[in-house]
Amino acid sequence: MKVIVCAGILLLALLICGCTTVSREGGAVPAVIPGMIGNWTGTVNAYDDGTGYNNVSGAVMTLMVTEQQDRIFSGDVIFTNQSGYAWSTAFAGAIGRDGKTLTLVQREGGYSTGTIISPEEIELIYTDNSEPFTIGIDRLKKS
Questions:
Q1: Residue-wise burial string across 9-24, b where 16 or more C-beta atoms lie within 10 A, e elsewhere
Q2: Distance CA 112, CA 99 (A)
Q3: Which residue has the higher pLDDT, 37 or 1?
Q4: Which domain range does residue 112 map to?
């Protein structure tokens, strides 16, 4: 009988300890940090204050990621319009603790938040509150 009571107390103690343990899964850094180095190319869809909605046909955005250290990465973003004119600006970005969210800042102004959809595809939402303000959705594939 004493064995059964002791085993019951031990089981109860184990259950109580297990129920009060704090899970660290939500804040854990991903075991495998996604590799961002390479060229990510796609289209630009935006809304510009004063101009309105624009889906610039023929325009291409290329995110050239040239360096990455852990969850921080950097490079240049290049915009090429339909006539072939291109301009670029430096950027830096970070991968969220969940291994899927992205945050980028550009030298010339503006910020992007985004999601890693797959190892070969990302989506960025760009915002710039300078005059005129702009917001855009960029869907990029690794090339």
A1: eeeeeeeeeeeeeeee
A2: 16
A3: 37
A4: 38-142
